[in-house]
Structures are given as structure tokens and as C-alpha cells.
Prior knowledge:
Elements: H1 2-17, E1 38-48, H2 51-54, E2 61-71, E3 75-83, E4 90-98, E5 102-111, E6 114-125, E7 128-131, E8 140-142, E9 147-150, E10 165-168, H3 175-178
Parallel strand pairs: 6-9
Antiparallel strand pairs: 1-2, 1-10, 2-3, 3-4, 4-5, 5-6, 6-7, 7-10, 8-9
Amino acid sequence: xxxLIILGxxxxxxxxxxxxxxxxxxxxxxxxxxxxxxxxMCFLYEKAIPSEIAGDTTDAFDREYIEFKMDEDGxxxxxxxxxxxxxxxxxxxxxxxxxxxxxxxxxxxxxEGKTWQEHRLYKIEGDKLLVGYQxxxxxxxxxxxxxYMYEDINKIVFDTDEFFLSQVACESVDKTTVL
Length: 179
């Protein structure tokens, strides 16, 4: 939980000062992804919809796709697309920071004609990506930059054996199904 608190504070400092992240660029963990200036990681979740629900549809899946682009200083940008079968899609872009385990971002998304920004957390465990969620209601507040932030980042959990995204080669993803 201490790491989450540190990442949360780092994100707030990043937003307020609009400068580099609070992660130390000399820390070896920030260079975990690549020695290149930018590295890309992609994660995909696909669940087939039962035929009794999908009917004659041949491409009946719930999908979730997350793409990270990270630089050697721990800065991250990307997309998070949620594409459920027969429901409204949700597309988000984000920016934030990472320490190679936790990814702490501000996402911009829209639904029903309204656009907003919200705090999102991810955890990378090997070739799996876990999306932070709240097992109980965790209040959010609107900060001075118009971003909905979690009031208590320690209540965000990543424990799940049922839902996670698997790492995939970015070039192998059929972008027509996830963008």
C-alpha cells in the first residue's frame, strides 16, 4: 500500500506542477521496460459470449484492450478501450507514471455526450495486467484540475483470479476489434 500512496502522491505532484514524475529516473526500476526512449506494452482480455446470447453473430466477445507507451523516466501514455458485446463501448486515453509494477494514470473518457477525467490504477504481474478496482465504494473527489481522484488509494485492490488482461504482442492485435 505504501507504493500506491507514493504513486498517488507522485501523480498529484505531476498534475499540479505539470512536470516530470516523482519517480527517480536513476532508479533501476524505471528502466525495467526498455533502454529505448519509448517502449510499448499491450494487454488484451477476450471472453466469448455464449451462443444462446450471441445468436448468429460470429464475432461475439467482450473485449478490453490496454496499450502503454512508456519512456525510460517512468512516464506513461496510452489507451484503455472497453468493448462489451451488445453494450456501449468506452474509450479512454491516459497519461501518468509507472515504477514498472504499478501504473498510476489520469484517464480521459466520454459517455453519453459527457467527457471527464478520472484516476485509474493498474498493476503489472509478469504477463498479466490487473485493473485496480474497489470491492466496496471508495469515494472520489473532483480535484482542482477537474480530475475525479480516489479519496483513499489504499482501498483499491488488484486481487483477482477471474479478471485480468494478458500481455500480447502489440503488432499481433487485430486493431479493428479493439479500437
